[in-house]
C-alpha cells in the first residue's frame, strides 16, 4: 500500500517534537483535543473504494458518521487498538439490487452478511501525521461472505505469512545450529501445523446436525416440572390432551421424522478412496461426536415424555421399534470400534513435517499405530487399503513439498547426495513398513474369516521414487564428468588448445539447461519437459566426451608401461561408465592382460613362500589370530587380490573380456590358481586333527610342576591348545565355516572358562613374580608374610576345585533361578584369588620402594655429616616410612623394626667409635700438629672433595674442632693464681665430649607403635626413646680413653702451672731467712745462684703464653713482675754472695800471706834435714 501515500496540508502532529505522548498512564485513552483526522479521512477515501468496491459517496454517507472523529483519535493515540472497516450486505428482496452499509468499528464480529472486512493496524504505538500514513499502517483484507473463513485464513497463512517468514529466514542466512537456538524450526513447525489445521477444517465432511422436534405442549410440561423441581411425567399434561388424537398423531409424526433424521446420520458414509486420509479420519471422529449428540437428545426429558405419551395411548408401533429403526446402537458400536484406529492417529506428524527426518520419523509412527490398532479395531481391511493409498498421496505431497523447498538441482553435490540418500532411505522405510502392514493385513483377514482380497497398495509416490533414483544416477554421472573436466584433473587445462572448446564451461552450460525446469515434476507434461532438457544436455555433453576420448587416447598412447596405463585408467575410471568413452579404450586389452599376468605371477610366488614364513604370520600372531584361521585369511587375501586384478581388467575392458583368446587363457589360469587357494583342505585337516585328539576342559584348577633345575612350581592345569581351539572356532565361524557341533560345544566350554583360566594364569604368574621379588628383597619377608599366607590359603582352597564346576555352573545359572548364589562361588574364588594376589603384588611393590628408601636412609647414616639435624632428618625419613607401613597394616612390624633398629644401632655405634677416636686425636694434638693438619685438611677439602678418604674428614665438616681454652696466670695482692682454674678446663672438655656423643645418643629411636592405642607400651616407650644405651656397647675401654686424655692433660697443666706458682715464694720468703739458711758455705751460695739462673728460663723468654694443644696458659701479666722480683732477689743474693766471697778471699789472702811469710822464714837446709829424719 505504499502507492497510496497522499499529500495533505500541514497539521499539528499527534506526538510532540520531543517524542513524549500527552497520554495518562492509567485510565481510558483520552485523545488530545488538537488532533486533526482530515489526513486519515483523505487516506481512507483513496484506499477503501478499490478495496471495498464502493464509491466515495457511499463511504461518506455511512462511514464518516458523528463518531468517526472520536474513533480515529482513540486509534491514533497510544494504547488504541486496531480499527475494522466492514462492508455489510443489507437484507432485501430477491429481485431488488443489493445494497451495502459501511461501518468503522474497533470491535470485530463475524457475520455471514459481512462481505469484506479491512483491518487497519498501527505499526507503532501512535500515529505521527508528519510521516506518510502508508508506512505506519498494516492494511489487511479479511474477505468474508463465505460459510466459513477457513479458506481465506488458509490462503492467508500458506500464501503470505509463511512464505514471508521463510523468505526472511532464508535471506538472514543463519546456520542450522543458530536457527535451532533461536527457535526458528519450532516456529516453522507451528506455521505448518496451523496451515494443516485450517486445511483440515475446510476438508472435513460436514456431518448434518440433528435437532429433534419437540411438541410445544411437551416442552411446556417439561418446563413446568423443572420449575417445580419435580420429575417430568405425563401427569404434567392434561388428560384431555393425552387422549386427543390430533396431539397423538402429531407426536407420532414427530417420532417418524426423528427416525428419518437419525437415519440420515447413522447411514452416512464416504468413499475412502476419494479425498485425503485426514478427511477419512475426521469423518469418523465427527460422526462419533454427532452420534453422541443424538444419544444425549434421546436421553432428554422431552423425548422420554413423548415416548410415555405414545405408550399411554397404546401406540406401541412407534415406540417399540424406535431404536431399531434408527440403527443408532449398531452405528454407535461400529463408530466406537472404528475410532480405536482413528483416535490419536499420528497423521499430523507427517503433514506438518518440515524436513526429511521428520517425514521418516512420522512414517514409523503412522504405520506403528496402524499395525497396532488394526489388530484391535474391526476397521475393514478393504477400507484400510485405500486409507494407506491416501496416506501415500499425503506422503508424496509432503515429500515433494520438502524436496522442492531444497531446490535439489541447485544444491552442491555433497548436499544433493545427502538429501537424495536420505530420500531413498525414506522410500526404503516406506517399503519396509508396507511389508509389515501387508503381513498384518493378511493376518487380520485370516483371523476375521473375511473373504480373501489381494493385499495390494498402489503407492502414489512410485513415480517420484523412480524420478529421484534416476536423478541421483544422472547427477552422479554429471558430477564425475564435471570433476574430470575441472582444472584439478588435467582435462580442463587442455581446453581450447586441443579442441577449441572449454570443456568445463561446456559442462556447466549443459547443466544450466536442466536447472531451468522442475526435475521433480512427474506429471506427463513434466516428464516431457524433463526428456527434452535431458536430450539437450546429452547433445552438449557428447562434444565434451569426444574431446575427452581424444585426450585419453593420447595419454594411453604415450604411456611407457602397463602401470602408467593403469594409472591413467584409475584416474579417469569415473568416466568409463559412459559407453562412448568405454568403447574407445578396448584396443589396449592385450597390454593390460600381460600386466595382469605379471601380477598373478607375483601372487604365485607369494603363495609359494608358505604362510608360516611370511610376514602375515607374524602379524597374525601379533593380532592374536590362531594358525589355521590366519592361514585361511592369508589365502583369502591372496584370492581377493587375484579377484581385484580380474575386476580391474573387467572395469577397464568391459564385461565379456574372458571370451577373447588371451582372456580365456588368463581366465583358466585364474581358475587353476583359485583351486590352489581353496582353504577347505586346510580346514578338513584341522578338523581331523581335533577329532583325533582327546581335548577337554576337566581336572583340577592347579597342578604342581617339577622344574628341570630342581624344585617345584605352581601352575594352572589348563591346556593352551584349548584356548587355541576356541579362538580357531570363533574365527572359522566368522569366516563362514560350518564347525561340527561337538567341537563347537568343546570350544564353548573353553570359551566359558577362558576368562577364568586366563585370570588364573595371570594371577599365578603374578604370584610367582611377586615371590621372586620377595626372595630378592629378603628384608621384607616378615612384613608381607600375612598377605603371602592369605594367597597360600587361597591356593589350598583352589586345589579342591575342578574345571567341571565352571562349565556346569555356567549352564545351570542360565536356567535355575536360585543357582546364581550357590554355583557362583567358583567364579567368586577366581576373583578373590586374583584380588588377594593383586593385593600381595601391590603391597610388595609398595613395600620394596619403601624398603629401598629406608635402606638408603640407613646407609646415609654412616656417611652423613656428624650433626644432629642430618641424623634426625634421615631417622625422620625412616620413621615416616615405618609409620606408613603401620598405617597400611603390614604384619610383624614390631620384630622387623626391632631388627632395623639393631642395624641402625650398629651404624651409629661405628659413628660414635669413630667420633671418639677423632675426638681423642683432636684433643691430643700439639701446636705443630694442629697447624700441619689444618693445612692438610684445607688442601684435601679444596682439591679432593670427592675422595673416599674424606669420609673421616666429614666429621670435621660437622664442626669437630676443639677450641683451645685460655687460662691466665695472674698476680693479685702479691698472690699468684690461675684464672680460670684447671677444673674449669676439665669441665669444658667433658662437656664437649658429651655434646659430641649426644649428637647420636640423643637421637630418637625408631618406633613401630606410634599409631597404636594403649598404655601397655608407655613404660617401654619412655625407657627406649633414645640411643643413650649405645655408650654401654663400646669394647676395649674406648670410652675411658678420652677421659684418661683429659686427666693427663689436666696433670700436664698442673705441673706447668705449679712451676709458676713456685714463684709465689719470691714474695713469701724473707732474705735473712735465706741468708741464714745458706750460712757461710760458698758452695751453697754457688748452687743457689746456678739454680736461679736455670729457673729464669721459665719466664725469661720472648713468648707470653704456653700452648698445650687444647689449652693455652697465658702468663703475660705475671711475667714482668716475676722477672722484676726475681731480678731483685738475684741482685740481693749476688751482692751478699759478693760480700761473702770477698771476705773469704781476704781471709784466704791473709792465710796465704801468712803461710808465705812462714815459708820465707824457714831455711832449705832445715827442711831438707828434717826430711832426712823422716
Automatic annotation (TrEMBL):
One of the protein's GO biological processes: microtubule-based movement
Pfam families named among the record's database cross-references: DHC_N1
Domain Dynein heavy chain tail stretches: 248-810
CC annotations in GO: axonemal dynein complex
InterPro entries named among the record's database cross-references: DHC, Dynein_heavy_tail
GO molecular function: dynein intermediate chain binding; dynein light intermediate chain binding
Family, as annotated: Belongs to the dynein heavy chain family.
Protein name: Dynein heavy chain tail domain-containing protein
Species of the source: Rickenella mellea
Amino acid at each position: 500500500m505504499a502507492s497510496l501515500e497522499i499529500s495533505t496540508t500541514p497539521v499539528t502532529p499527534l506526538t510532540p517534537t520531543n517524542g513524549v505522548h500527552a497520554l495518562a498512564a492509567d485510565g481510558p485513552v483520552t485523545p488530545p483535543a488538537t488532533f486533526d483526522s482530515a489526513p486519515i479521512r483523505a487516506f481512507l477515501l483513496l484506499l477503501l473504494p478499490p478495496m471495498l468496491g464502493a464509491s466515495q459517496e457511499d463511504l461518506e454517507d455511512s462511514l464518516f458518521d458523528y463518531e468517526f472523529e472520536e474513533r480515529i483519535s482513540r486509534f491514533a493515540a497510544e494504547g488504541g487498538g486496531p480499527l475494522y472497516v466492514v462492508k455489510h450486505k443489507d437484507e432485501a428482496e430477491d429481485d431488488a439490487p443489493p445494497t451495502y452499509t459501511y461501518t468503522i468499528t474497533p470491535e470485530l464480529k463475524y457475520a455471514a452478511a459481512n462481505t469484506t472486512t479491512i483491518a487497519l493496524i498501527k505499526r507503532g504505538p501512535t500515529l505521527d501525521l508528519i510521516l506518510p500514513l502508508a508506512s505506519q499502517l498494516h492494511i489487511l483484507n479479511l474477505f468474508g461472505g463465505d460459510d466459513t473463513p477457513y479458506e481465506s485464513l488458509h490462503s492467508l497463512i500458506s500464501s503470505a505469512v509463511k512464505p514471508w517468514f521463510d523468505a526472511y529466514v532464508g535471506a538472514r542466512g543463519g546456520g542450522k545450529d543458530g536457527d535451532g537456538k533461536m527457535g526458528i524450526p519450532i516456529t516453522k513447525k507451528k506455521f505448518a501445523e496451523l496451515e494443516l489445521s485450517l486445511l483440515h477444517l475446510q476438508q472435513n465432511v460436514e456431518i448434518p446436525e440433528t435437532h429433534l422436534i419437540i411438541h410445544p405442549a411437551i416442552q411446556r410440561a417439561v418446563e413446568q416440572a423443572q420449575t417445580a423441581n419435580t420429575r417430568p411425567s405425563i401427569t404434567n399434561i392434561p388428560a384431555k390432551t393425552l387422549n386427543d388424537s390430533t396431539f397423538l398423531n402429531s407426536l407420532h409424526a414427530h417420532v417418524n421424522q426423528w427416525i428419518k433424521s437419525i437415519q440420515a446420520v447413522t447411514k452416512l458414509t464416504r468413499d475412502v478412496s476419494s479425498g485425503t486420509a485426514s478427511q477419512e479420519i475426521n469423518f469418523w471422529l465427527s460422526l462419533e461426536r454427532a452420534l453422541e449428540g443424538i444419544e444425549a437428545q434421546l436421553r432428554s426429558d422431552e423425548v422420554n415424555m413423548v415416548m410415555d405419551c405414545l405408550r399411554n395411548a397404546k401406540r406401541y408401533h412407534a415406540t417399540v421399534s424406535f431404536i431399531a429403526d434408527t440403527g443408532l446402537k449398531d452405528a454407535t458400536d461400529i463408530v466406537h470400534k472404528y475410532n480405536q484406529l482413528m483416535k490419536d492417529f499420528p497423521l499430523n506428524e507427517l503433514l506438518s513435517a518440515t524436513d526429511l527426518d521428520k517425514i521418516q520419523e512420522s512414517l514409523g509412527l503412522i504405520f506403528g499405530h496402524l499395525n497396532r490398532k488394526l489388530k484391535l479395531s474391526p476397521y475393514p481391511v478393504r477400507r484400510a487399503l485405500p486409507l494407506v493409498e491416501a496416506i501415500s498421496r499425503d506422503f508424496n505431497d509432503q515429500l515433494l513439498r520438502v524436496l522442492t523447498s531444497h531446490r535439489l538441482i541447485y544444491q552442491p553435490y555433497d548436499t544433493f547426495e545427502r538429501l537424495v540418500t536420505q530420500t531413498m532411505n525414506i522410500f526404503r522405510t516406506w517399503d519396509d513398513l508396507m511389508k509389515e502392514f501387508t503381513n498384518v493385513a493378511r493376518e487380520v483377514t485370516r483371523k476375521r474369516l473375511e473373504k480373501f482380497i489381494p493385499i495390494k497398495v498402489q503407492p502414489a509416490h512410485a513415480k517420484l521414487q523412480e524420478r529421484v533414483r534416476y536423478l541421483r544416477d544422472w547427477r552422479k554421472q554429471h558430477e564425475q564428468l564435471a570433476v574430470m573436466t575441472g582444472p584439478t584433473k588435467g582435462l580442463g587445462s587442455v581446453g581450447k588448445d586441443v579442441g577449441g572448446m572449454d570443456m568445463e564451461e561446456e559442462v556447466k552450460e549443459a547443466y544450466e539447461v536442466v536447472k531451468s525446469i522442475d526435475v521433480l515434476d512427474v506429471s506427463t507434461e513434466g516428464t516431457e519437459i524433463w526428456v527434452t532438457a535431458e536430450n539437450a544436455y546429452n547433445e552438449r555433453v557428447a562434444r565434451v566426451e569426444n574431446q575427452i576420448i581424444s585426450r585419453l587416447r593420447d595419454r594411453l598412447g604415450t604411456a611407457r608401461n602397463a602401470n602408467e596405463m593403469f594409472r591413467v585408467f584409475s584416474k579417469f575410471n569415473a568416466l568409463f561408465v559412459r559407453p562412448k568413452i568405454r568403447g574407445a579404450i578396448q584396443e589396449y586389452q592385450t597390454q593390460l592382460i600381460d600386466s595382469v599376468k605379471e601380477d598373478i605371477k607375483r601372487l604365485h610366488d607369494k603363495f609359494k613362500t608358505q604362510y608360516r614364513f611370511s610376514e602375515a604370520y607374524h602379524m597374525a600372531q601379533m593380532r592374536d589370530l590362531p594358525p589355521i584361521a590366519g592361514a585361511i585369511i592369508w589365502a583369502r587375501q591372496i584370492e581377493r587380490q587375484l579377484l581385484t586384478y580380474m575386476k580391474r581388467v573387467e572395469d577397464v575392458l568391459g564385461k565379456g573380456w574372458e571370451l577373447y583368446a588371451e582372456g580365456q587363457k588368463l581366465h583358466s589360469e585364474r581358475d587353476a590358481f583359485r583351486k590352489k587357494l581353496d582353504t577347505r583342505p586346510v580346514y578338513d585337516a584341522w578338523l581331523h586333527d581335533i577329532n583325533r585328539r582327546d581335548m577337554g576342559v576337566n581336572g583340577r584348577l592347579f597342578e604342581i610342576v617339577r622344574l628341570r633345575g630342581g624344585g617345584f612350581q605352581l601352575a594352572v592345569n589348563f591346556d593352551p591348545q584349548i584356548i587355541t581351539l576356541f579362538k580357531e572356532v570363533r574365527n572359522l565361524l566368522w569366516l563362514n565355516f560350518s564347525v561340527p557341533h561337538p567341537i563347537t560345544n568343546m570350544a564353548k566350554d573353553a570359551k566359558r572358562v577362558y576368562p577364568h583360566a586366563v585370570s588364573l594364569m595371570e594371577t599365578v604368574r603374578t604370584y610367582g613374580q611377586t615371590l621372586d621379588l620377595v626372595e630378592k628383597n629378603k628384608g621384607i619377608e616378615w612384613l608381607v608374610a600375612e598377605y603371602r599366607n592369605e594367597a597360600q590359603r587361597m591356593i589350598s582352597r583352589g586345589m579342591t576345585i575342578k574345571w567341571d564346576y565352571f562349565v556346569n555352573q555356567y549352564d545351570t545359572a542360565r536356567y535355575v533361578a536360585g543357582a546364581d548364589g550357590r554355583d557362583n562361588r567358583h567364579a567368586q574364588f577366581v576373583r578373590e584369588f586374583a584380588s588377594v594376589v593383586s593385593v600381595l603384588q601391590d603391597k610388595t611393590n609398595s613395600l620394596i620402594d619403601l624398603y629401598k628408601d629406608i635402606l638408603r636412609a640407613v646407609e646415609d647414616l654412616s656417611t652423613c655429616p656428624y650433626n644432629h639435624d642430618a641424623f634426625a632428618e634421615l631417622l625422620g625419613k625412616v620413621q615416616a616410612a615405618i609409620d606408613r607401613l603401620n598405617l597400611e597394616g603390614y604384619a610383624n612390624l614390631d620384630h622387623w623394626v626391632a631388627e632395623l633398629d639393631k642395624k641402625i644401632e650398629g651404624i651409629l655405634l661405628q659413628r660414635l667409635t669413630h667420633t671418639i677416636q677423632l675426638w681423642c686425636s683432636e684433643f691430643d694434638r700439639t701446636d705443630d700438629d694442629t697447624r700441619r693438619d689444618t693445612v692438610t685438611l684445607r688442601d684435601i677439602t679444596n682439591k679432593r672433595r670427592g675422595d673416599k678418604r674424606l669420609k673421616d674428614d666429614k666429621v670435621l665438616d660437622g664442626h669437630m674442632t676443639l677450641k683451645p681454652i685460655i687460662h691466665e696466670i695472674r698476680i693479685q695482692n702479691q698472690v699468684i693464681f690461675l684464672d680460670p682454674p684447671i677444673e674449669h678446663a676439665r669441665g669444658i672438655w667433658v662437656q664437649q665430649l658429651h655434646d659430641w656423643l649426644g649428637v647420636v645418643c640423643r637421637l630418637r629411636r625408631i618406633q613401630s607403635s606410634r599409631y597404636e592405642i594403649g598404655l601397655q607400651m608407655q613404660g617401654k616407650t619412655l625407657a627406649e626413646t633414645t640411643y643413650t644405651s649405645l655408650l654401654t656397647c663400646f669394647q676395649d675401654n674406648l670410652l675411658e680413653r678420652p677421659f684418661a686424655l683429659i686427666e693427663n692433660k689436666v696433670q700436664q697443666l698442673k705441673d706447668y702451672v705449679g712451676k709458676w706458682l713456685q714463684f709465689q715464694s719470691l714474695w713469701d720468703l724473707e732474705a735473712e731467712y735465706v741468708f741464714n739458711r745458706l750460712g757461710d758455705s760458698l758452695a751453697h751460695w754457688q748452687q743457689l745462684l746456678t739454680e736461679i739462673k736455670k729457673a729464669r728460663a721459665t719466664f725469661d723468654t720472648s713468648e707470653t703464653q704456653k700452648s698445650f694443644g687444647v689449652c693455652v696458659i697465658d702468663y703475660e701479666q705475671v711475667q714482668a713482675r716475676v722477672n722484676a722480683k726475681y731480678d731483685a732477689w738475684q741482685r740481693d743474693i749476688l751482692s751478699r754472695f759478693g760480700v761473702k766471697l770477698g771476705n773469704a778471699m781476704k781471709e784466704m789472702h791473709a792465710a796465704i800471706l801468712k803461710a808465705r811469710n812462714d815459708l820465707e822464714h824457714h831455711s832449705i837446709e832445715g827442711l831438707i834435714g828434717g826430711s832426712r829424719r823422716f
